[in-house]
């Protein structure tokens, strides 16, 4: 006899004995002539009579309802909705199975749901428990020194705080016994907001981790940047023009055409032809257009006739380079900010400077790897990559800590505190603006960088 997965393991079927594992003879479990990489229904469901007999037999067996559901499923996907008797779904239980394999690989005893001193322990934790522990351990045992802050969705350290709270939480078999403490805590009532009230049922303060001491003494960041993406040809990294002299790399600004339907009051200021600019701004005033609003095609046609576009200036920043495509003539390209890193250097006379490290995609065409070029004989003080976490001292507006490099320019570097939620993520999860409490970005110019790198 062999052990077989009802829903194939190769297709995501979990290793759960009471859900997806059954005993099978070697003939039925044969990879070539037996069930192979199929569900029971895919194996013989086309034979209506045989499938009916199978269903009747399964229903008559004393099996868990969840396993019967998997055995009788006619879907090509693993049934992910547990029955009313299965309080824990297949995916969390599969996670526990994977943990067991990891423990076995490293020679650690298999974790169980029963607590035993010195042995791994796996337990289910309700979502509201961390909120309860945060309120309990808002202050240290003296009742005055701050410890765990209230939950703040805009603070990326929330997950690390929750992990330390749960690590200090006792097993479920006697967990309720720790909530026997009373103390003053900030009121949650709207009429008493900001005031202190007596609260019973708090967790014992002696069990609390010292989060404040951890924050003050840690030497490594607690937030890790995932999904760093290099610049590639699949991304728009440059603005180009086909009709300007490709040999003139000293032009002050790049010229390009812009559709009238995309023109706004803000972008109209870059229109080169003064008559076209005045005509559009007059139309915008008549229509009451705001900064980012555009005019309708009907109104534009009445004001500009058959004209469909205007010439505007643009200067996105970055170096001007020449490229020679295989399918066309020499072109002049103005590279948008798409740098890999920034190099901080200092000359023998003490002059401080920043040079943007161009992406390898660009350096294949540019005459230099840095913008601006690093002076001959200059000493490199440091190199910061985009998204790198760096440790900075406190400033007048920002606390000491780890900061993430978010923007690189030739005159300055912009960083965001590691616990601050990026605006794009806050927008993606629909976080209301009044709940966003992230620290403001921190900008470091050459003077600030010189002080930082001058420190031992």
Description:
The termini are far apart. With 456 residues, the protein is an alpha+beta fold. Helix 9 (274-287) packs across helix 10. The chain has helices at residues 17-20, 40-44, 48-60, 65-71, 90-105, 128-136, 158-167, 211-217, 274-287, 297-304, 360-363, 423-428, 446-454, and strands spanning 2-5, 21-24, 181-186, 196-202, 238-241, 254-259, 309-314, 320-323, 331-335, 341-346, 352-357, 370-371, 379-385, 389-392, 401-408, 412-417, 442-445. The protein has 13 helices and 17 strands. The strands form six sheets. A four-stranded antiparallel sheet has the order 12-11-10-13. A four-stranded antiparallel sheet has the order 14-15-16-17, with helices on one face. Strands 5-9-8 form a three-stranded antiparallel sheet, with no helix packed on it. It has four domains: 2-87, no CATH class; 128-217, no CATH class; 253-314, no CATH class; 338-454, no CATH class. Mean pLDDT is 79; it is low at 81-87 and 227-237.
């Amino acid at each position: 006899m062999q052990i077989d997965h009802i829903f194939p393991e190769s297709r995501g079927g979990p290793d759960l004995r009471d859900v997806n594992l059954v005993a099978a003879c070697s003939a039925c479990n044969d990879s070539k002539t037996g069930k192979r990489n199929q569900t029971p229904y895919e194996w013989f469901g086309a034979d209506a009579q045989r499938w009916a007999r199978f269903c009747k037999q399964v229903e008559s067996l004393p099996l868990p309802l969840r396993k019967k559901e998997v055995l009788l499923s006619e879907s090509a996907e693993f049934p992910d909705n547990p029955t009313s008797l299965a309080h824990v779904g297949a995916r969390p239980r599969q996670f526990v199975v994977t943990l067991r394999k990891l423990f076995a690989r490293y020679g650690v005893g298999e974790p169980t749901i029963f607590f035993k001193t010195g042995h791994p322990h796996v337990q289910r934790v309700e979502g509201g428990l961390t909120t309860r522990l945060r309120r309990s351990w808002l202050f240290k045992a003296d009742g005055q020194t701050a410890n765990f802050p209230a939950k703040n969705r805009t603070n990326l350290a929330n997950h690390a705080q929750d992990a330390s709270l749960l690590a200090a939480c006792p097993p479920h078999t006697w967990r309720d016994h720790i909530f026997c403490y009373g103390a003053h805590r900030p009121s949650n009532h709207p009429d008493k907001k900001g005031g202190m009230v007596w609260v019973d049922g708090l967790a014992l303060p002696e069990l609390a981790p010292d989060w404040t001491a951890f924050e003050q003494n840690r030497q490594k960041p607690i937030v890790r940047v995932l999904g760093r993406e290099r610049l590639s040809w699949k991304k728009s990294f440059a603005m180009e023009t086909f009709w300007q002299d490709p040999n003139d790399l000293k032009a002050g600004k790049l010229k390009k055409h812009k559709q009238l339907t995309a023109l706004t009051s803000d972008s109209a200021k870059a229109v080169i032809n003064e008559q076209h600019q005045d005509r559009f701004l007059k139309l915008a005033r008549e229509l009451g257009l705001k900064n980012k609003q555009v005019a309708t095609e009907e109104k534009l046609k009445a004001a500009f006739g058959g004209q469909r576009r205007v010439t505007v200036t643009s200067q996105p920043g970055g170096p001007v380079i020449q490229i020679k495509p295989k399918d066309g003539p020499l072109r002049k390209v103005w590279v948008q900010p798409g740098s890999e890193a920034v190099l901080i250097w200092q000359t023998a006379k003490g002059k401080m400077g920043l040079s943007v490290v161009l992406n390898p995609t660009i350096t294949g065409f540019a005459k230099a790897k840095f913008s601006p070029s690093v002076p001959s004989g200059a000493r490199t003080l440091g190199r910061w990559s985009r998204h790198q976490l760096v440790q900075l001292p406190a400033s007048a507006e920002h606390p000491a800590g780890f900061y993430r490099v978010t923007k690189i320019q030739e005159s300055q570097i912009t960083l965001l505190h590691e616990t601050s939620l990026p605006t794009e993520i806050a927008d993606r999860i629909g976080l209301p603006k009044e709940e966003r409490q992230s620290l403001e970005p921190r900008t470091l110019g050459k003077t600030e960088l010189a002080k930082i790198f001058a420190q031992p």
